[in-house]
Amino acid sequence: MRFSTSVSALTFAAVALAQDVTNGQPGLVFDPPSVNATKGSVVTFVFDGAPGNHTVAQSSFQKPCEPLPNGFDSGYIFVPQGSQGPFPTFNLTIEDDTKPIWFYCAQSLSKPQPHCISGMVGAINAPTTNNTFDAFQALAKSAASVVPPSPALSGVNAIATAGPGPLTGSFSGAAVPTGTAPAGSGSSGGSSGTSSSSGASPTKSNGAGTIQISGVAAFLAAAFGVVLA
Ligand SMILES: *[C@@H]1O[C@H](CO)[C@@H](O)[C@H](O)[C@H]1NC(C)=O
Ligand SMILES: *[C@@H]1O[C@H](CO)[C@@H](O)[C@H](O)[C@H]1NC(C)=O
Ligand SMILES: *[C@@H]1O[C@H](CO)[C@@H](O)[C@H](O)[C@H]1NC(C)=O
Ligand SMILES: *[C@@H]1O[C@H](CO)[C@@H](O)[C@H](O)[C@H]1NC(C)=O
Ligand SMILES: [Cu+2]
């Protein structure tokens, strides 16, 4: 998967992806792996790896491959080989940009190891010292196991207002969250609780802008040696 903030960033992402080799599995990454996003920004994950079957699940810094209590989780989004866009997306609205948001891919069916332990982790608003993204990813690569998350729209410091989609045609989901959650409600992600009066509108109304994070990469593609664009 990859993050991008603009067309030029997308181009960069493709290059980075082609060059990335994590434990012999090209492309098992969020790419780029770390972005900044201000309060009210909508971060879009695009599951455009074909084939791919990934999640976006919130974790803590200390335990990168385990779900954070009350964290968000997109569920497993399957995109078959040869799929054409538009691809399924998952939108997170940032509710607090003063704290880092860590996440991982929970896919564990891959060989030789789960995506998270291959380094498929990402961060929003990671510190630039100490608990950096690089430190987080290093912890992920040394994790003993990956703990599956539970589907959830609401996270801590970020919230989704809808489950990932569209899951139609050849796209499918497993253990995806359903329903709708009003932005800024905090909902079941109780500890986020940042329902300020301005809310966290999934629009550009506050000028925060929209960030795209693409879900590229797949364990099947890696196995076949396919470089995903
Ligand atoms: C986020 O912002 C900080 C402070 O401006 C900067 O040092 C860092 O490189 C940024 N991180 C990313 C991923 O853009
Ligand atoms: C995607 O991965 C999940 C978790 O490993 C699995 O339950 C699901 O069956 C997979 N989807 C497909 C279509 O293979
Ligand atoms: C980073 O860690 C060092 C060593 O533990 C500590 O002295 C320093 O204050 C920390 N910096 C930040 C920004 O937390
Ligand atoms: C995510 O946001 C984009 C841009 O507004 C929108 O086109 C897309 O339908 C949204 N995805 C979901 C699953 O709501
Ligand atoms: Cu993955």
UniProtKB/TrEMBL annotation:
Region Disordered, residue ranges: 171-206
Biased composition regions of type Low complexity, renumbered to the chain: 172-185, 193-202
The entry's keywords: Signal
Cited InterPro entries: Cupredoxin, Ser-rich/MCO-related
Residues making up the signal peptide according to the UniProt record: 1-18
Name of protein: Cupredoxin
Organism the protein comes from: Trametes coccinea (strain BRFM310)
